[in-house]
From TrEMBL:
SMART domains: HTH_LUXR
SUPFAM superfamilies per the UniProt record, alphabetical: C-terminal effector domain of the bipartite response regulators (SSF46894), CheY-like (SSF52172)
GO BP: any one term: regulation of DNA-templated transcription
Pfam families (UniProt xref): GerE
InterPro entries recorded: CheY-like_superfamily (IPR011006), Sig_transdc_resp-reg_C-effctor (IPR016032), Tscrpt_reg_LuxR_C (IPR000792)
Residues of the signal peptide: none
Name of this protein: LuxR family two component transcriptional regulator
Keyword entries, A-Z: DNA-binding, Transcription, Transcription regulation
Record keyword Zinc present: no
Length: 200
């Protein structure tokens, strides 16, 4: 890892945030602490590795924020005694690495280095996929079905026949779907569906 790596620490627990900051204070790692992702969004850094306590949805929130700002950063999640399902969920949502708290400076250094290498090797592809999945998760099951029909090249009439709803209802679901995923037209929605692996 580069000397003087900046860690963007996000943790809503002030005591743990202080403990992590204190642990890393004597190292070559520079820590910028934030309480939550909304505080980070108001002062988005130009570079660094995000070290985020794995509260429910934090990884997805951060990937969404990166998607909106188009500023991609490696992300390491951490939690005290994380379960396998928790680690898998965080990685599926877009975390590059995961640590168990309490950790050592060397563990943080290695995790951050691995996250940066993975980030550089993959470019923004994995993060785009995670961001697309996050957008798709905003949809109702019916809106996902309409998106799948759109991605398959079906007309509103054919989508309606397949789902046993009227073409007008398909239009309404289609408009809602485009709005929720932030797509301005069907081609953009199809790209998001492909990136999210909703369609192949």
């Amino acid at each position: 890892m580069r000397t003087g790596e900046t860690l963007i620490l996000i943790d809503g627990d002030s005591r743990r945030r202080a403990a992590v900051s204190h642990l890393l204070a004597g190292s070559d790692l520079h820590v910028e602490p934030f309480e939550d992702s909304s505080e980070l969004a108001s002062r988005w850094p130009s570079d660094g590795v995000i070290l985020a306590h794995d509260d429910t949805g934090i990884v997805r929130d951060l990937i969404d924020a990166m998607s909106r700002s188009m500023k991609w950063m490696p992300l390491v999640a951490f939690a005290q005694q994380p379960g396998t399902a928790q680690v898998v969920r965080a990685v599926m949502d877009g975390a590059s690495n995961y640590l168990a708290w309490p950790f050592t400076v060397e563990e943080v250094r290695r995790a951050a280095a691995a996250a940066r290498e993975s980030h550089q090797a993959m470019g923004s592809l994995r993060l785009r996929e995670a961001a697309a999945r996050s957008r798709i998760q905003r949809l109702t099951p019916r809106e996902r079905e309409v998106l799948a029909g759109v991605a398959a090249g079906l007309s509103n009439r054919l989508i309606g026949e397949r789902l046993s709803i009227s073409p007008r209802t398909v239009e309404i679901h289609r408009a809602n779907m485009l709005n929720k995923i932030g797509a301005s037209h069907s081609n953009e929605a199809i790209r998001i569906a492909i990136e999210a692996a909703l369609v192949r």
